[in-house]
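Continuing from the previous page of notes. For each protein in this section, the sequence appears first, followed by its structure tokens. Read the first protein now.
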Amino acid sequence: MTVLDQHVWQPRTDPAPLLPDPEPYRLLGTPEAGALDAGLLTTMYGQLVRGRRYNRQATALTKQGRLAVYPSSTGQEACEVAAALALEPRDWLFPSYRDTLAAVARGVDPVEALTLLRGDWHTGYDPREHRVAPLSTPLATQLPHAVGLAHAARLKGDDVVALAMVGDGGTSEGDFHEALNFAAVWRSPVVFLVQNNGFAISVPLAKQTAAPSLAHKAVGYGIPGRLVDGNDIAAVHAVLTEAVARAREGGGPTLVEAITYRMDAHTNADDATRYREDAEVEAWREHDPIAVLERAMRERDLLDDAMVRDTEQDAERMAAALRERMNEDAVLDPMDLFAHVYAEPTPQLREQAAMLRAELEAEAQS
């Protein structure tokens, strides 16, 4: 009997249910939007407005020399906020370098969330406090970490789901494929959220993949792929909430692709005009996530001019407090460079720490 006769080559899963819908899933502006919880929409609106102001203030801080770099998520705030709101307090969020806002929406102190980008610490907050992993500057390395944590939690019997965020550029990294394959085989309770903002720095998506969508890649791993309008916060929240529930119930991982757009440059060091036209950016402004939600809420009389004004004033107070605190010069100990890297410092780290300590002592005596 040959291998082919045993039919072990056949797919273990019917691929049809794993395929994403042909068009991104939407809620706002559809008849189904009328059934959305008013309180949740109000919370989302407040978080979006604060998030937009946070992005603009952080960008301004780079121009003032208070931040070394800031990768803005302006235009992607719906994905950021929805990811934070879809999780339970016991769950874990694994952000990429652009997901500072998601960490803040999860409860991380706004100043502490910027500490890495300020260059003061490896990460400026306690990951365990809000269950937010350190912001990840290397592309996609947070994905295997999310899978490892979620898989270990399941082995221990802990009711924990990990939500890992990555950009479309990160899907071209090997870590992306390794994480999805392991999670799929072991049915780890992980949700992968790909924020497809059109560009990996200056490289358009068409030069990264020939797949119909990034969500279609899920089929190759035997997991469901979902395609959603990333500027429709209600739709993103609904899809992520469903995926989190599925993971928690033992259904395994889900790959969610959110179609969105990065309105600002890749970072303050990037000149986006070199690879995209202003007309393209302006076209996406018509689908601004704040405007999309505001229109839907006004149609249901859930938002008026006074509420808009109050929300914007609250965002301004947040921005003022952020400016004031960021204008304070941090008192840093160079030896902190070696703290919280490993539970037990490696011989190399101990050697490097001794060298730095000797240099500091010599400098103090000179």
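Done with the first. The second protein uses the same format. Note its length before scrolling.
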Amino acid sequence: MQTDLVAALDIGGTKIAGALVSGDGTILVRAQRPTPARENGETVMRAVEEVLAELTSSPLWPRAYALGIGSAGPVDASRGTVSPVNVPGWRDYPLVDRVRAAAGNLPVELIGDGVAITAAEHWQGAARGHDNALCMVVSTGVGGGLVLGGRLHTGPTGNAGHIGHISVDLDGDPCPCGARGCVERIASGPNIARRALENGWVPGPDGDTSAAAVAAAARTGDPVARASFDRAAQALAAGIAATATLVEIDIAVIGGGVGKAGEILFTPLRRYLADYATLSFVRPLTVAPARMGTDAGLVGAAAAALAGVAAAGV
């Protein structure tokens, strides 16, 4: 029997997506369900099983020889469990065992969603050709992952590269994680919007108070909106420079909804990066927008499945 495909799951607080993916990263079959994030754990799992049932009913399913999961986190790849902040019904939930049972006992690889997007960007996106990279998702939260020495570096539990919870303001606001002054507390979309509102930004007639609306106002020259993005860019630059100093990355790729703000974010980010990345071995560091879009989680989960099989020598 021909076995040349992998299955992939991208599990977040809004949607559960699944796919069958070829060895070159082409998505051949898709399935998707909304995430019942406020329901109990078994209800969420049923949505995952519905996605898997749709995939397993495809004529291509017999060609799948492994399955990768990119999940909102924290994840614990060593135990096969997940505890997504935005899915309260899953705490230390045995996702790998449950998925393996629903997928006919295929080998399963679990990584965090930030790591999945990193795998996708390194395989086919903005970090392609870079052996040492940080890839970030700047959206409702701030996550990330690392490529070191040309390989995805997940760490023992699958959370390495979680830049959102590096503290860049020692006396800053408390973060829900328990620390203070985290990158996420300053640079995530909701916090960009919160800061703009607190400092007097007035939304438009539609009442939109999202970070995208703040970005739109910044493009028209609104000084408060620009200042909120400037502060986010400074926090991101400090976190990126600290990461580069620690592990010698040469590119930082930024995706997610905030990344779509374009030069409203990237112009001050590059300016601040020059202030923070000052040592000779980090000065060449560049930043770039992500390229993989909404399929990044699925493509990255597929990459993890392929890498896991290769490492196991299957």
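What the second structure shows: The chain has two domains: 5-112+294-312, 126-291. The radius of gyration is 20 Å. We return to this in next week's lecture.
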